[in-house]
Amino acid sequence: MTHTPDILKPHKMPISGKPLTGPHLVLIPSAGMGHLTPFSRLAASLSDLCHVTMVSILPTVSSAESSHLSDFFSSYPDVHSFKFELPPFDSSAYPNADPFFLRFEGINQSAPDLMTRLLTKSSKPVSALIIDITLSTSMVPLAKSFGIPCYILFTASAAMLSFCAYFPTYYDSNSGPIGDIQINGLRMVPVATIPQALHNPKHIFTPLFIQNGKNLSKADGILVNTCESLEKDTLVALRDGHVQPGFPPVVSVGPLLPVNIPAISGASEVSPWPDMQPEKSVVYVSFGSRTAMPKEQIRELGLGLEASGCQFLWVVKTTVVDSHDNTELEELLGEGFLERVKDRGLVVKGWVEQEELLQHKAVGGFVSHCGWNSVTEAALHGVRMLPWPRLGDQRINAGVVARSGLGVWEEKWSWEGEKGLVSADEISKRVKEMMADRRHMATAQKIGEEAQMATRPGGASYEGLVELVRSFEGFEVSDA
User: Fold this and answer.
1) With CB atoms counted within 10 Å of each terminal CB, which end of the chain scores lower, N or C?
2) For 313-338, how does the pLDDT look when each residue is reduced to its tens digit (9 = 90+)?
3) Looking at the chain, which residues constitute the CATH 3.40.50.2000 domain(s)?
4) Which CATH code is given to the segment(s) 273-452?
5) 9-260+455-470: which CATH architecture?
6) Rounded to 5, what percent of the chain is helix, strand, coil?
7) Which InterPro entries match (predicted)?
8) Residue 41 to residues 38, 62, 254, 385: CA-CA distances in angstroms?
9) Confidence check: pLDDT of 467 > 80
10) What angle do CA 158, 257, 434 make, to 5 degrees?
11) pTM across the whole model
């Protein structure tokens, strides 16, 4: 891999045993790597400023989370680990529900026990909580009852935050099916962009989402993993109370910088292939750990990448994280595909270090599901994107990519639950357009420069964290 500028280097590993001073902030993430990753990054950033504890909810839903937590706490001994064993949760009322949604519900039900243990067993009195949005229904009122400031780290985009804040108002006043939603002070969210689960009032996620949205206004503040160069208009609308009157302070703290975990650093399957490719020539293709793609669509994607004539590095997934998949690449992609593309394409089914790839000089474009962590990582490194959202908040995130100029979104491409394949010809055309588009390449590089500035001393995201910590100086809550 190439030399990394100092500002983009992962957080240094703290020296074990350095003095723990200042306030004590307790971070409580929820289930899923999309939630855990930004919490780990925030914990690492805050550990340079104050005493930090991060709660580990056990057992984890996936082995990926378990491995990440183990490696993270080994690498960051100054971030204290507080383990909480989740009691058994009766999921019989939610047959066939997503295990991560079940975990959200289980943690909320056990929140009083978690809070009691935190206050009685923490090594230092708690100054404030920073919680995941999925836990706000239970944790915000609990924190208030103990007189503890409670902040939310919103791990998705500010656009999704505005939707989350406004959706309960829309839902309570709407008697029919979900339609297009005009968010106060911002833009309309088309019905096709709204997360699929919210169209079903009986889905386990729908009441949780609505209650969490209502509790946003009760938090003491909201931290968002974004920056002005990506979402300035949305941040202004939220801060000025246009979306929801009386909304708490909104602090942009992103893009949160990667953590340095030697246990996995350099373990990627792709080195040294990128080092042998021309600058800005490689299309990186990945749809995240929670986004599976039908095998028929995977084959069309492969044919499209082949027809594009571009170098590409493709991480293939037919199943979500931790699901068993014995399908061989040759069987999946078609006979002869790997042989035909071997001189300009690398296809892997294993783990890759996405941060390292996106900052590599060879990578010039990113075909992505638009999970928010992927968007912020692309923004930080100034890599243009071709969004292909598949589920959840990903279409809302793709809208952010398009409006900011970080990439071009082909909105008619299908996502989970919609019929039809995106053809190889269409994929090839869009990939070639992305890689030839100098205007969006320049815009992406400018976004990257501004995002990097935000993380430096004096930048909005860096100073937002510093001011947050300063606001708790001298404030501590006694043990219950």
Assistant:
1) C
2) 999 876 554 444 546 888 889 889 99
3) 9-260+455-470, 273-452
4) 3.40.50.2000
5) 3-Layer(aba) Sandwich (3.40)
6) 45, 15, 45
7) UDP-glycosyltransf_plant, UDP_glucos_trans, UDP_glycos_trans_CS
8) 5, 19, 10, 23
9) yes
10) 65
11) 0.89
